[in-house]
Design a protein that fits this description.
The chain has 21 helices and 15 strands. The protein is an alpha/beta fold. It has a domain of 89 residues. Helix 7 runs antiparallel to helix 8 and helix 10 packs antiparallel against helix 14. The longest helix has 29 residues.
């Protein structure tokens, strides 16, 4: 496995907002504390280590040991958890939904980025210890987003009835998924290894959260990752002052609205990733996750009339913090309250809503971390790389929209010049002369000149498109070769990492080989988009 090319923040992959953020656009600086770099991280570590309360550290370590008990962790894992009790220890965190069997490939990229980043900064800083953390989004309730993954074109789906926090879902029913996987994996030793891993994690554990912790530990635990489940009464007890302030004063909605109003002015075509509610907290009750609402009668949930006064609701939070669940906007606040965290690694959608939260963090007096966009990667076989080279097909072109990819390819291989840019320029230059004449003689003539210019430019566009269409037909075989490569690398016309499953690549290599090689290769990639050739010694 080797890095073929780093394409930076490719426009075909990164939104305009993310391009602005990742290129340190000054207009976005009021909305974050900076991006991850070694100097920024070491400086943030000094501040966070000094400010994070020791009693919180002790509670955190106690909770983690309790959560790991059923895994019977080795001494190395227990020691990694214990590091967090040291006054000079900080964390670098990523999080993700509890997709069965990891879900799509970017699950891997997030975790390996956090592991690599913690190791890199640790090597450069002898004053602090850096622990990579994986925060399980165990309190989400959108089961349809996590209950499947793809094996090539086949969608492997887990059927279960649930309405509550997904981490609490019993793993009953996943035996049927194992039976679906068995014919796909049975033929090789590597496939049998995957079947054994699935059975160990999902058939021996009682809940999806416990199964996911075991899976992440089995895949990445040897590299130092520590898994945490925020759906924990002891952790939530540390967060009760924030929850009480939220229901009392609706701080998140006010803070996010304030930030959004200024982002609309700072960012072209800004669209909020998440819209706040008056109260951004759910109530976990009777296997359901119910949104807390407020009206003239007091506080209630979406399925019940008002049942609390403000005082009784705050008392309920104090007595039973485990019954309260932060939503997507409040989860970063919760995470940063209970971890000595200095940096968060996420995808574009995640970082977009982190940018909405700066005022809210300040209002709650919670430190805001550095941000880092996870690596986006495209894995290519040696055969696919050779085909691209033989066709003289730049890998960056693969990320163009389908029509733009085909048209550019036709222009590249055509023996006819299909680019009418020079003709457009000549036409516009000629009409500039008419514009000047009209302004000197009869200004009423300007409208006729402009109309004729638009008509002729439109005619050029039509001619160019007809020529492109004719050449596409003539060069169909060449176009098909290029599009076949692209279609194989972009299943269902989506980024590979959002559809492809790790087992498509592990079956040739084995788990440990794939993990170690991918980790090492990602550590050599620059920020942004990485093109990686698959191959193993």
């Amino acid at each position: 496995m080797k890095l073929i090319e780093s394409l930076g923040y490719h426009k075909g992959v990164y939104s305009l907002l993310m391009q602005q953020l990742l290129q340190n656009d000054p207009s976005l600086k009021p909305y974050h504390e900076g991006l991850v770099s070694t100097p920024a991280a070491t400086q943030a570590a000094s501040k966070r280590a000094a400010s994070f309360d020791q009693s919180k550290r002790n509670s955190l370590v106690e909770v983690l040991h309790k959560q790991y008990e059923h895994l019977d962790p080795d001494a190395k894992t227990r020691a990694q958890i214990d590091v967090l009790s040291a006054p000079n220890a900080v964390s670098i965190t990523t999080g993700h939904q509890l997709n069965i069997f990891t879900g799509p490939l970017y699950f891997w990229y997030k975790i390996l980025d956090v592991i690599n980043m913690a190791a890199c900064i640790h090597d450069a800083d002898d004053k602090h210890q850096y622990v990579p953390i994986f925060w399980m989004a165990s309190e989400d309730h959108d089961f349809e987003e996590i209950n499947h993954f793809f094996l090539g074109e086949q969608k492997v789906r887990w059927e279960a009835a649930t309405t509550g926090a997904v981490g609490r879902i019993p793993t009953t029913g996943l035996k049927a998924v194992l039976e679906t996987l068995t014919p796909y994996y049975t033929g090789t030793n590597q496939g049998k290894e995957l079947l054994a891993l699935f059975a160990e994690c999902y058939l021996q554990e009682d809940t999806l959260a416990n199964a996911t912790r075991r899976l992440v530990h089995q895949l990445f635990g040897a590299h130092g990752i520590v898994v945490i489940d925020g759906d924990d009464a002891a952790l939530k007890s540390l967060f009760t002052p924030v929850l009480q302030a939220e229901v009392s004063k609706q701080i998140t909605q006010k803070g996010v609205h304030k930030t959004n109003s200024s982002l609309y002015k700072a960012v072209k075509n800004f669209k909020p990733q998440v819209n706040p509610r008056p109260i951004n907290v759910f109530y976990l009750f009777d296997n359901k996750r119910l949104r807390i609402t407020k009206d003239e009668n007091g506080f209630g949930t979406t399925e019940n009339p008002a049942k609390w006064t403000l005082q009784s609701l705050c008392e309920e939070i104090q007595k039973h913090p485990e019954r309260f669940s932060p939503n997507a906007l409040m989860r970063p606040l919760y995470q940063e309250s209970v971890l000595p965290n200095i940096a968060y690694v996420g995808g574009g959608g995640e970082l977009a809503y982190w940018l909405q939260l700066k005022n809210t963090f300040e209002a709650f007096d919670i430190p805001y971390p550095l941000l880092h966009h996870r690596t986006t990667a495209l894995l290519m076989s040696e055969k696919q790389v050779k085909k691209c080279n033989r066709l003289q097909l730049p890998t960056s072109d693969l990320f163009l929209p389908t029509a733009a990819f085909i048209n550019k390819r036709v222009r590249q291989i055509s023996d006819i010049d299909i680019d009418f840019s020079s003709q457009r320029k000549l036409l516009k230059d000629n009409f500039n002369t008419f514009h000047r004449l009209a302004s000197l003689t009869d200004k009423s003539f300007l409208g006729a000149v402009e109309a004729q210019e638009k008509k002729q430019l439109k005619g050029l566009d039509k001619l160019e498109n007809r020529l492109l269409k004719a050449q596409r037909k003539k060069l169909q075989d060449e176009v098909v070769r290029a599009t076949d490569i692209r279609n194989a690398l972009f299943p269902n016309n989506r980024l590979q990492e959002r559809t492809a499953h790790f087992s498509d690549f592990v079956l040739d290599a084995g788990l440990a080989n794939f993990t170690n090689n991918l980790k090492a290769t990602l550590s050599t990639a620059s920020n942004g988009l990485a093109i990686i050739q698959i191959g193993y010694p």
